[in-house]
TrEMBL record:
It comes from Rhododendron molle (Chinese azalea). It comes from the Eukaryota. This is Uncharacterized protein.
């Protein structure tokens, strides 16, 4: 990807330092420029914020004036959001659906409110597997009607995985410094793995689901930071966790376990010392004849041990096949029922929309011809 600014290769600390010298508008502009060059090939971004440079100019002036908070947190950091995370601005929030184009949300999503308070600039909306990969069992990973097919930046013919495909693609291709996704069942872990980026999956309720197009409240967790380092992911996590009265039941319970002072204090070079880590080889590390993949993971295990971790190897989990089966575990039946109820509630809450229920969405989509 020659000719692009290596925006995602810098840590948050490096970006903050450079922005102090050059101005935040420089880095926001770099993100937009990279997106314009690479997005036609990779399809990682659905929309770019038309006001991003103006917003960056504002935070530059705040820094020069030494306004409170202008040198800390996420002040001026450009962030890309998955297209199911609502923003009350010029963006659409569609989950990749044409039928939600032009719909009006009542307010920012809970995690977006926290990002704005931390000083972040919303750079754009990331592509995704349409309707959070819940439209079809056979749709291609990373495809949506609005975004087209998202492509893995390392190997264009390889799957980017989903559903938070664009969030991972865009960071891996240096189009953004930070991106956020959502997960119900592997929707951030898989794209992050396929596109070689760092990710954190928060416990359900640690981050608010309010204002996010849902699948199921039992499993949805929002705002997983996709970054280049664990430290950057933790900075983002600290910014978005906490209680939200619009997702009160889940966030109230989880907020009790947020450590005083946040998670940054756990970033220690010797943090693995004495930690017990289970290795469930079956079915996760059975690579067959792929000796290169097997060798890579064995090297990772060796690194963990060298850093002081205690590996409990070949850990057995009873009924693992049933637990992982979408049908045998009952997850599929429950998720389908909860999806209908949750999506209907989200659509009813919109200020304006051509669809107000899952039935409306299905009927409208049947009229669209590609």
């Amino acid at each position: 990807m020659g000719g692009t600014t290596m925006l995602s290769m810098f840590t948050r600390t490096q970006i903050i330092g450079a922005m102090a010298r050059k101005g935040k508008a420089t880095y926001v502009g770099s993100g937009k420029e990279n997106s314009e060059k690479l997005n036609p090939i990779l399809g990682g971004v659905i929309e770019v914020n038309p006001d991003a440079l103006q917003q960056a100019d504002v935070v530059d002036r705040e820094r020069r004036a030494e306004a409170p908070g202008s040198c800390y947190g996420l002040h001026g950091i450009p962030v890309l959001l998955k297209d199911n995370i609502a923003t009350k601005d010029k963006f659409n929030t569609t989950a990749g659906l044409f039928v939600l184009l032009g719909s009006v949300v009542p307010r920012d999503a809970g995690v977006v409110m926290k990002l704005r308070r931390a000083g972040a600039i919303i750079l754009g909306k990331a592509s995704l597997s349409e309707l959070m990969d819940f439209r079809s069992l056979t749709a291609p990973e990373g495809w949506s009607a609005r975004g087209g097919q998202g492509n893995n930046p390392y190997v264009l013919s390889a799957s980017p995985c989903g559903s938070s495909s664009g969030s991972a693609i865009s960071f891996a291709a240096n189009m953004v410094a930070v991106s956020l996704g959502t997960e119900t069942d592997g929707s951030i872990l898989c794209p992050a793995s396929s596109n070689s980026v760092v990710r954190i999956k928060p416990t359900v309720g640690l981050t608010s689901r309010a204002g996010v197009i849902p699948v199921t409240p039992r499993q949805d967790t929002i705002g997983r930071p996709i970054c280049g380092t664990v430290a950057d992911a933790v900075y983002m996590l600290d910014a978005i966790v906490g209680f939200d009265h619009r997702d009160a039941k889940a966030t109230r319970k989880a907020s009790k376990y947020i450590p005083s002072g946040g998670y940054l204090k756990f970033l220690k070079k010797d943090g693995l010392e004495g930690k017990r880590i289970g290795i469930v080889r079956k079915p996760f590390f059975n690579f067959g004849n792929n000796s290169a993949l097997s060798h890579a993971f064995e090297n990772h295990f060796h690194t963990l041990k060298r850093k002081g971790a205690i590996l409990v190897d070949s850990l057995q989990i009873a009924n693992i096949e049933e637990i992982l089966s979408y049908t045998a575990s009952g997850e599929g039946v429950a998720a389908l029922a909860e999806f209908k109820l949750s999506l209907n509630a989200y659509l009813r809450d919109l200020v304006a929309s051509s669809v107000r229920s899952l039935a409306d969405v299905i009927a409208s989509m049947r009229k669209i011809r590609f």
